[in-house]
User: Fold these one by one.
Assistant:
Number 1:
Amino acid sequence: MTEHVSVLPILRRPTTLVAALLAASLALALGLVVLVSPPARAAGLQQVTSFGSNPGGLSMYSYRPDGLPAGAPVVVELHGCTQDAATYFAGSGWREMADRHGFALVLAQQSSGNNANKCFNWFESGDITRGQGEAASIAAMVDHAIATYGSDPKRVYVTGLSAGGAMTAVMLAAYPDKFAGGSINAGIPYRCATSMTAAFSCMSPGTDKSPAQWGDLARSGYAGYAGPRPKVAVWQGQSDTTVAPRNGEELRDQFTNANGVPSTATASGSLSSAVTWEEYDGQVRLYRIAGMGHGTAVDPGTAENQCGTAGSYFIDTVCAACHDVVFFGLDGGTTTPTDPTSTSPTTSTTTPTTSNTSSTSSPGAQCVTASNYAHVTAGRAYHSLGYAYAKGSGQNLGLYNTFHTSTLRESSSGSWEKC
């Protein structure tokens, strides 16, 4: 099985013999293998047969943990090519996160009638423009969840793989008013391509534009919009031969510029020897996974930082969904996901420190500098899913280990904040 199929832009809705033969010829030329999705649905996943305007001809599925109250967040999932809603629901790890942290899932599903390989049409102008096609259908699903399930309209997120990752970028650009954040897994920048021919070049080797050029394209998704922009996480395997690793950097450039934050990292670190991250003013985070090919990063298991099921396009490396939950504040933290500009930027770096002993850096302000591990041990912070948070204020201090240092002061009895 090759990886090319996962984001392949096959002609949309071929209605003639010539179009069908062209699509087949492209598939054969690239050595594609079209996968057949499992017919059975995962338990608990429900189809929503009517959800409003559906110009893109998509199907909607939903999952709500038992006892989920009104006002809970909702995460929209967008599968990759050859997959369906049930496949992504079962493998991505987001079901475990929904059960653990209490939010709903909405899953959009593509059909072979729209695209021969069931890819979302992230390269078709009629499907990526606000108010049109598949983008409008996904937006209608969000509106349905808010109206019917009582989901919090200020805590709506979107995530997707490959073609679904590219469509995630579409939704963040075309509907920044609907989403508080999004996670793009092996995706493509918004409006990198507006034709099938251009789509192949965007996938590999990738298209180079300046941050300002990418940002202008993102802003064109909703011209004149002046509200807060969604937070964005980008996950990119560095051995991906389907979507070139360069796309991770281009996505970073697009959304740092669109969000109005510096393109120079304000924090960096690692989750393991293979997984590194860079953060940009608390608004954009780029994860690079060494040795990983094309797929969603998962880490099967029952620990709090594990999730997902390994399989085709679900690669056993790290639980991306767990880290997205923390980044977006879906773990019950005190960050405000509805107003990205209010989130304090993480100031941790990967500079090693050989001491876990706290020291006063500014006696008048009672500032204490120590590793995040030492802060947690001393009761100035707590840890969740591998990150440290200031006790009381809930400010994200970065990774929970001895290599990341933070400077805190006690703002009130038992409550700590960054100096």
Number 2:
Amino acid sequence: MADKLKIAVLYDAWGEETPDSEKAAESGRKRKEKEDREEIFDALTKLGHEPFYHVLDGRTQSLHALAKCGADLVFNLTESYAGDDTMEMNVAAYLDLIGLPYTGAGPHASFLAQDKATAKKMFAFHGIRTPYFATAYRGNIDHAHDVKFPLIVKPQLEDGSIGIDAAAVVNGVKELMERVQYVQNEFDSPALIEEYIEGREIYAAILGSYERTEVLPLVELDLSQLPEGVPRIASRDVKFERDSHAYKVTKSAVVEDLDEETTQKLSDTAIAAYRAVKLRDYGRIDMRLTADGEVYVIEANPNPWLSSKHEFAMAAKKSGRSYTELIKSILELALERTRKTAASD
């Protein structure tokens, strides 16, 4: 491990009087973000570094302050800028512009992963199986496979299951048109219309660079206890609404019942997807495993949540790493990449 470093734990907040106020706990998503940054802060302290928080609040002053904060490295936990998820890539680009090293995905990876249609085109180019899809916005069709029902309709440019609920799965033309209109009106986003793949929801947490990657033990989000007739999808309520029935009857756990061949197939597919969208340091690939053993990549997630209670840390623990060791691994990958870049200049 490197000498003692000043590390800025960077996150985004908006609409709050103070960054760490109780308002940050109003939604499940913000609760997870808060857990994430506090645990990372503690881990960095245990590793002998000097962490401090820096918040981007949507004002240019916070950007200027970041450039002058004196950090040796940024642990980048931002997911938006001023509440706009599509600006996540701009934060990484800004860090590149001011020459401040940071953990996780660069701007290209953030763009490719967030624009779900572009990511799927990248997967297809690299021979990675992904559901057939179409995209539509205000009457224009940008891209269309010959898709068939049932379909799932989601915002093309959002993450965190935004815009995904039970009604997102449609079985006829009328439902499809209504859902496309809902996505366009509610999120001002193109609608991604994707074939719904029935199967197990498998997550692959990955550490590493393009050249050297490690797939941690696979984790499954078990959706089997959802009520009959409710689509088996990782909807907004499943992920974040703690008081909902869907949240209470779903859980994630390390997969223990897959044979070696299937595990290898899932791992190889995940690495291919990780590389296709240029993820680095750490990322999570979401897949569906069908009853006949086919693997479909649903999406790639740069800089996934690192809360000790959630999937990435769960996989790391199964691999033999403590939470502090997981943060150390991510930090070392970022530092190694920074050293290589400096040596090549």
